[in-house]
Write a structure and sequence with these properties.
The complex is a heterotetramer, with two copies of chain A and two copies of chain B. By secondary structure, chain A is of the alpha/beta class. Chain A has seven helices and 14 strands. Chain A has one domain: Glutaconate Coenzyme A-transferase, CATH 3.40.1080.10. The longest helix of chain A is centred in the N-terminal third of the chain and has 11 residues, at 21-31. The radius of gyration of chain A is 18 Å and the shape is globular. Chain A starts with a helix and ends in an 8-residue tail after the last helix. In chain B, strands 1, 2, 3, 6, 10, 11, 12 and 13 form an eight-stranded mixed β-sheet that branches. Chain B has a three-stranded antiparallel β-sheet with strand order 7-9-8. The longest helix of chain B has 13 residues, at 258-270. Chain B has twelve helices and 13 strands. Chain B is an alpha/beta fold. In chain B, a hairpin with a 5-residue loop joins strand 10 (162-170) and strand 11. Classes of the chains: A alpha/beta, B alpha/beta. Chains A and B meet through helix 3, strand 9, helix 4 and helix 5 of A and helix 4, helix 5 and helix 7 of B.
């Protein structure tokens, strides 16, 4: 997933990075095809050059040698609302076929079965960046017909609902799972399989997705990781905190 | 000089934190004033409204200890690890007591504090629309943009009764410098009615005046100045000690049950008198392992003719 | 490294300032980029909308030279001296051409730029009500505060086509540091569509990265980086040269008539090719007299483990 | 006027200072009865310790050794709108009996006879500080029945109009001229002579004021400058830039 996500990042883009997988993906892209990728962290650090893999977005190593650090409100106001961020990574407990994400609650808001951490910056990111990339394990409990709580807007009920919100962001762009890559239909805003990872069948994807999965006309197989990608990635996470 | 402001954390919390207050312990991942939270627990303050974008471990502890009646927040997780179990136990099951919640996005909550600090009547922002959050929070409203005619989400100012802001260095009057991740520290200090500044180091006023652009807040905003080294552990202070990531991971284990949590609090909060006693209780290898390398800023010249 | 961004002021103005553009030369009394204004005059740009809280001498010169069709401002005086005579001649008598005005308070104009920089739909503020200004400026509107029900004044975002921001030091990509009075420099850079950074010194990227909290804007916001020592004279650059108060007083005399003003512009703007030629034309005693004493900031440690 | 103005400042107050007379008055007060007076400049400098008399509020000597410096928007938002400033000094070309000030235009806005600099921060200061002190020469062309343009609100048409604006500031507090000191009637909001400077008669004040001047029941004579005040003031302006 890390390698597939990294490939989506282009040189000179600005990317809002969370810890874990997104951080690895962004740093991998920076070492390979996108040397001028600008890493922006929610915590206000911009252009970080982390000397090691940070556990949290508030790690001091993201500040030492960064290009700039600003306050929390400034980070959201100048960078996110300012429309300065190209790509944002999101995850969540549930996602539906229009890319709406739940990271707030399982059950109902007043009587939660499981209380999740909540939006954090997720709703703000979903509303303001040009491309949202979601990285998530492909599990039936995560892919749902309707999210229990809509934390971060995807295309709502298809592109019409999205347009009504008049958000400046571009909405969901890709969902990358351990089985496949989805992109979103330009007209309907529906999640569509565009690439299957090596050895995965469309039946496997359908089995783990509760709705009738749409498949792109030109379905491809995800190119396998190159040696360069694998070596670089391993060097980024020598203690194997994130990679098994 | 106004040395009457300098006091211990015990004195500061006793004088400036009242039962029922809305409290903001500032710091977005960085410089979270754990020592202040522990003092609040030791002094058995109750019915507090705890406000913070990221409740983090410190509010988890205060919730477990029964100090809180309400939480105002935007991300209630253990950063980099997972859930805040005490928060969840209180909110889901009422253990040790029920916890009301008031929830925002990060932009929404930091915006409320910014609006409070700058005394805006309300703050318009490009978020929230499309989310289910506003339906659960009557303080989030919608107004019509008089220029475009579009609907715009707005939040009201947040003005805590008391804020605790930890800094790298302050003078005895409370002029202070911070660097690294500066989170919502400035906004918390300007928004709050009473401000406790705690500092790793107390320095001469001339050190602060040598670099006025680095000043977080000038002295007249603060009510108490506390010299409290290692105030933030297991959070961190850039250039003084790193984040104790190991403890953040361990907290998940400690808090599996309410009882195991209280055992920790009995030992590490009630079991010590002060932050200095807490620090001397930490293994020396732990303390040494968190000390940073040196990476000094290039100085700048503020001279005039 | 992206050295294609470094260029002369001549090149930067030629490539990024178009006739009819809304231009913001940033700097509240400090670091006003006179060299950029002079280059605009030399290149005979016209129909510009000039925006600045304090037009100062630089916009007075550009107005006299016929570059401006409209002025967006909040205080059109010669700070510490009196009137801006060229502004008055243009506005009151249409010499050399008529000048439209769009007027705010300082808070209103700096608020418009802040709203532009942070892309707010509109900015509510506690001012303007009670003044006659809103009646003369249809862009100032009133909305109802959804919390109190009171009327609140609002202003729209300002997004200039191009901003020039002068700084003490920048790297070749445009990461830059400023200190001293920081005015609206950051907001101008974030609000503008195109940004020209000019700097007293070009330094290695590592100098900027040694103190990220001092960074005004990171590199990806800027389109041009110009190494332009003494760019701001007769304004000043903290730690590099002081304000030439004598010239500010003299400007009042120079501008008594349009003709005497144009004589100055012919000699000091058209009569030189570049800022370095301008500086070498200044009496050496003047240049030496403006050099500041040293007053260095206390360094801080950004290290981590 | 400087000495009279300085006496109005109390220790520990925060005062928004302009250049010239207000700056002298504030620095004088700081040397005498108000050592903890906090000087705040519109340019963002807070707690300045100027080594010499600045010509403009943007003088570098206001920054060297200041307690804090912030941006222009921050200065107006955190300090002024934030309600953190106790006293503000204003001047202007015209003032009426309710303390409304014109610093914008003589004539009409569209066809100005004299175009003045405009509000700058004046309207913002008038709307947000607890006490406004106006320092002005006592001339008939300055004291007018109705200002040509209302730049900075005083009590509008008496306290009723002021209350309707719901501003957080306290409004005009004193007007200090070369002849007398006015304060404002608590009920009607009208300018009222409370002290005549030594040797000045109420007739002289009336002669230079176009409306029927209100006089306080307990009219006093301004205590003459003490030797201490005079010596300290002269030391503050050795080059006699502001003092003749």
């Amino acid at each position: 997933m890390v390698i597939v996500a990294a490939r989506e990042l282009k040189d000179r883009e600005s990317v809002l990075v969370g810890v874990g997988i997104p951080n690895l993906a962004a740093n991998l892209a920076k070492k390979l095809q996108a040397p001028n990728l600008l890493l922006v962290y929610e915590s206000g650090a911009v252009g970080s050059n982390p000397s090691r893999m940070p556990l949290s977005i508030g790690d001091p190593c993201l500040v030492s040698g960064a290009k700039s650090v600003c306050s929390m409100y400034e980070q959201f106001a100048y960078y996110l609302q300012g429309g300065r961020i190209d790509v944002g990574f999101l995850g969540g407990a549930q996602i539906d076929k229009y890319g709406n994400i739940n990271s707030t609650i399982i059950g109902t808001y007043k009587t939660p079965k499981v209380r999740l951490p909540g939006s954090g910056g997720a709703c703000d990111i979903a509303s303001n960046v040009k491309k949202i990339i979601v990285i998530t394990p492909h599990e039936k409990r995560r892919f749902v017909e309707k999210v229990d709580f809509l934390t971060s807007p995807g295309f709502i009920d298809g592109k019409e609902g999205w347009r009504k919100l008049k958000l400046q962001g571009g909405g969901p762009y890709a969902v990358i799972t351990n089985l496949c890559t989805f992109k979103f239909d330009e007209v309907t805003g529906e999640m569509t399989v565009t690439a299957l990872h090596e050895g995965v069948t469309i039946e496997q994807v359908q089995e783990n997705t509760p709705w009738n999965v749409k498949v792109a006309e030109e379905l491809v197989t995800t190119p396998p990781p190159t040696e360069m990608e694998v070596t670089t990635l391993r060097a980024l996470d020598p203690d194997k905190i994130y990679l098994r | 000089m106004d040395s009457s402001k300098t006091m211990t954390m015990k004195e500061a919390v006793s004088r400036f934190v009242q039962d029922g207050d809305t409290v903001y312990l500032a710091g977005f991942t960085h410089m979270i004033p754990f020592a202040a939270g522990h003092e609040v627990i030791r002094q058995k303050k109750k019915d507090l409204v705890l406000a913070r974008a990221t409740p983090d471990i410190i509010y988890d502890q205060m919730i477990a200890a029964g100090c809180a009646k309400r939480l105002i927040f935007s991300y209630a997780g253990n950063p980099g690890v997972g859930s805040l179990r005490c928060f969840r136990r209180a909110h889901e099951k009422g253990i040790p007591k029920p916890l009301e919640i008031e929830e925002y996005t990060h932009f929404g909550l930091s915006g409320r504090l910014f609006a409070g600090a700058t005394n805006m009547p309300f703050l318009p922002m490009r978020t929230n629309l499309g989310s289910d959050l506003p339906a659960q929070n009557p303080l989030m409203k919608v107004v019509k943009d008089p220029y475009s005619g579009d609907e715009v989400s707005v939040v009201p100012p947040l003005k805590p009764d008391v804020a605790v802001v930890h800094v790298q260095r302050a003078d005895v009057n409370g002029n202070c410098h911070i660097w690294g991740i500066i989170g919502e520290q400035k906004d918390a200090a300007f928004a709050a009615k009473k401000v406790i500044i705690s500092a790793e180091e107390i320095v001469d006023e001339s050190v602060i005046r040598s670099d006025p652009n680095r000043t977080l807040v000038p002295d007249f905003l603060s009510h108490a100045v506390v010299h409290e080294p290692w105030c933030a552990h297991p959070s961190y202070v850039q250039g003084y000690y790193d984040r104790d990531n190991e403890f953040y991971v361990k907290w998940d284990e400690i808090t599996k049950e309410h009882e195991s949590t209280m055992k920790y609090i009995d030992e590490w909060v009630h079991g010590v008198e002060s932050r200095s006693e807490y620090v001397s209780k930490l293994p020396p290898s732990k303390v040494d392992g968190l000390r940073p390398k040196e990476a000094y800023s290039s100085p700048v010249n503020y001279g005039s003719v």
